[in-house]
From TrEMBL:
Residue ranges, annotated region (Disordered): 1-32, 49-76
Protein name: Zinc finger protein 706
UniProt entry keywords in alphabetical sequence: Cytoplasm, Metal-binding, Nucleus, Repressor, Translation regulation, Zinc, Zinc-finger
Short name of one Pfam family: SERF-like_N
Any one biological process term the GO annotation gives: regulation of translation
Length: 76
């Protein structure tokens, strides 16, 4: 039964090590920045964070294209 006890100790040690590594990693700026980019231009596939910026981009870069439905009520 020594192996069973060793296995349990090894699992606990590994869980503790993983928790410490997760704490040490801290806040990841790259994933946080990606979470903010929710609007994507259908023409260029560029991403924007808010609808106002997205509308300004669409009006200046794609004036001949029809406005996407998600930008209908947005004021620029």
């Amino acid at each position: 039964m020594a192996r069973g006890h060793q296995k349990l100790q090894s699992q606990q040690k590994n869980a503790k090590k993983q928790a410490e590594m997760k704490k040490a990693k801290g806040h990841d700026q790259k994933t946080a920045a990606k979470a903010v980019l929710v609007f994507t231009c259908a023409v260029r596939r560029s991403q924007m964070s808010d609808p106002k910026t997205f509308k300004q981009h669409f009006e200046s870069k794609h004036p001949k294209s029809p406005l996407p439905p998600e930008l209908e009520g947005v004021e620029a």
